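for the writeup, i need someone to sanity check this before i put it in the appendix. the sequnce is what the collaborator sent (i think, or maybe the updated version? ugh). structure was predicted straight from it, no edits. if anything looks off just tell me and ill rerun, i have time this weekend
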Amino acid sequence: MTERIYIRPIGFAPGPQEEEGDAIRLAGGMVFASRFAVILRRDGETIARWQASPGTMARVLGELPDSVGAAAEAQWANLTLAHPPLQLGARTVRLDQPQVMGILNVTPDSFSDGGEFLERPEVGRAHAAAMVEAGAAILDIGGESTRPGADAVWEEEEIRRTLPAVEYCAAMGAAVSIDTRRAGTMEAALRAGAGLVNDVSALRYDPRSLELVAATGCPVALMHLPGDGSGLHDNDGYESVVFDVFDALAAHRDRAVAAGVERANIVLDPGIGFGKSLSDNLALINALPLFHALGQPLLLGASRKRFIGALSNEAPVEQRLGGSIAMAIAGMNAGVQLLRVHDVAETVQARNVWRGLRDAALTDFAGMAD
């Protein structure tokens, strides 16, 4: 018999004053949570559910079975944890507000901009500079398409594609992430100026990658993929996608920590669009606040994804800006720290307006008329 506990934020307020102080700053960010579902599951089935506020949480946690008490206390502490900045080489990325990660694909076949920047470094450089100028905190460089049906690339070819882009982005002073699942590419990119490894396989595809990331001490983003991490879009079905992904990310985090990766350097990504159906993706996006209970910064990559087209009369990839912004705002409202996007300027503008609303909501309303 296996029992597991989950604490999911379900009620939110513009500011703590609207709940007379009975709200927490979710993950140290700009979102305030005031109500929580405490969910007890046994052998894959939900057997009990409580609602709590910050003021009643201690009582609810005290009533839980001993088998899940310590995990519940840890999750509650994680929900209020303010994350320190990520250090990407000489660049510091603060996590007290949503940050935008701009995508730079140097591939011939990526679903959105494949071929545009691979053999034309001057165009890639201009695009990277424009993303930085628009407000991207990180540039994420990838040399292998992860679209459904894409062919895998050899490590040497991936290095050939990505290294010039890493070098010119680092030379302009940008914080750089390398999007790869191969240790050789990680190592080459880190030497060339990258500061973060973004691995869709959560360091499982290449047996050398976990040791490499631990040894270098760089931040790493671990994404959820079903199975063993080799099939990017395999989907064997979920018992409950939200809880299954939560448990898998917890295991990826613990595996990395056991191998020597600093916990403060681990970012988690629920893997929207990877081995998930439309309903799976929507369930995960709606449940994003739950994932703060894992105690790590969160990355959301939903930009221009196929499910946006499915909800928009099969809009082609170049016509998914509106849906991509909607997903970014959903991430912001859930307290997600990193938003991986194609449309940097538009997302930064949406983030700035969102932040303006959040800042204004902290005004004391005591003097306003009833």
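Residues 111 and 147 are 6 Å apart (CA to CA). The first strand starts at residue 3 and ends at 13.
thx in advance!!
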